[in-house]
């Protein structure tokens, strides 16, 4: 049993680390010429996308995260960290290409680049996600309805059916591995050099956004901690019944504060926070797309005029009321005015976090 557990943990660590390194190499190669797909004769890494220096820096950051674990020598903790970190970097790439980059192209009037990326992401991004890919032999041996093929309980009760439903198209073939470099290159392969620089800017901006999410969560935790201390001091001056009620509220807020502080300091919990934010973003974008199609009565918002109309409608019906609700809750409603025109950009409220704004939307 000990040897089997050690084998499982070793494979989890190696598998996750392999994908992380493959992603770093593929990201650095995105700056090469679009028609370079030959793995036997690759071009040297260009410094525009970080080159070898960025790869070394990222690997050092991973080592620092491992060193900051509660027990860095525990393979289960290392495997958990690498697994969630792998999921975060691929979710970042997905959000940057699927949402930020395409919106940038449409808002700037570059419809051809938007359509080029759109045509390719439906083939390139699913293999990079953790979505279930069923076997070609699973059509006659399916799982019962409502069962998740990636659930441990489903695997326990229906091991062979679960394997067929989430083992890839040909699960026992030796070349069933995902070509991460190819799929990442496929997203941008037909873009011009200028459009690739735009894509690079959006991918870099995603990294800054992730840092802001963590920093804002830490700031909220410190503020909540101060509020909790003030609430406790005030409760001591009240009667016994009120004290019990206030202490319960303080305890609840204190637990929330502790969780937020841990999110900033613990690498695994920080990665889980980023993963939750990226999943929330993904869900919001799906709802936005469905809402826009119903509102504009169109099958797809893929032209500049449609996108402009969608932004105006969404800003007036969803975004502005959501931001108004945030400032109303914080008591700063006076400094948040209505947009003068329908095309005016709605600025986020001061101090509002990205998570908060997306939740309210």
Summarize the entry for a quick read.
This protein is mainly alpha-helical.
Which keywords apply here?
361 residues; mainly alpha; 12 helices; 0% strand
Q: Which structural category do the helix and sheet elements fall into? A: mainly alpha
End-to-end separation in angstroms reads: 49 Å
Count of helical stretches: 12
Globally, the shape reads: globular
- The SSE string, one letter per element, is HHHHHHHHHHHH
Description:
- With 361 residues, the protein is mainly alpha-helical.
- It has three domains: 140 residues, no CATH class; 59 residues; 87 residues, no CATH class.
- Helix 1 packs parallel to helix 7.
Question: Could you give the topology of this structure?
Answer:
Layout: H1 2-29, H2 51-67, H3 75-107, H4 111-124, H5 152-157, H6 159-165, H7 180-188, H8 193-235, H9 240-265, H10 267-296, H11 304-330, H12 354-360
């Amino acid at each position: 049993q000990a040897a089997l557990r050690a084998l499982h943990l070793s494979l989890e660590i190696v598998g996750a680390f392999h994908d992380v390194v493959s992603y770093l190499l593929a990201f650095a190669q995105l700056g090469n010429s679009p028609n370079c797909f030959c793995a036997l004769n690759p071009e040297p890494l260009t410094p525009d996308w970080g080159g070898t220096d960025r790869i070394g820096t990222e690997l050092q950051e991973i080592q620092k995260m491992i060193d900051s674990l509660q027990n860095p020598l525990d393979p289960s903790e290392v495997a958990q960290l690498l697994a969630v970190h792998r999921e975060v970097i691929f979710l970042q790439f997905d959000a940057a290409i699927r949402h930020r980059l395409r919106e940038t192209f449409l808002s700037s009037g570059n419809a051809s680049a938007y359509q080029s990326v759109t045509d390719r992401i439906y083939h390139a991004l699913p293999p990079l996600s953790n979505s279930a890919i069923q076997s070609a032999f699973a059509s006659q041996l399916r799982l019962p309805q409502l069962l998740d093929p990636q659930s441990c309980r489903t695997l326990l009760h229906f091991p062979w059916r679960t394997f067929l439903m989430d083992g890839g198209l040909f699960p026992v073939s030796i070349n069933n591995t995902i070509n991460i470099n190819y799929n990442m290159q496929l997203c941008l392969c037909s873009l011009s050099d200028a459009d690739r620089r735009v894509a690079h800017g959006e991918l870099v901006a995603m990294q800054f956004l992730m840092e802001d999410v963590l920093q804002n969560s830490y700031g909220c935790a410190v503020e909540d901690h101060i509020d909790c201390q003030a609430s406790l001091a005030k409760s001591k001056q009240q009667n016994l019944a009120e004290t019990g009620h206030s202490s319960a509220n303080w305890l609840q807020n204190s637990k929330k504060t502790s969780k937020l502080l841990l999110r900033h300091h613990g690498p695994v919990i920080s990665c889980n926070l980023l993963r939750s934010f990226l999943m929330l973003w993904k869900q919001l974008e799906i709802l936005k797309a469905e809402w826009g199609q119903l509102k504009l009565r169109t099958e797809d918002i893929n032209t500049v005029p449609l996108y402009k109309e969608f932004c105006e409608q969404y800003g007036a019906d969803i975004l502005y009321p959501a931001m108004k609700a945030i400032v109303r809750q914080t008591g700063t409603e006076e400094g948040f005015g209505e947009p003068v025109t329908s095309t005016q950009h709605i600025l986020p409220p001061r101090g509002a976090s990205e998570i908060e704004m997306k939740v309210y939307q």
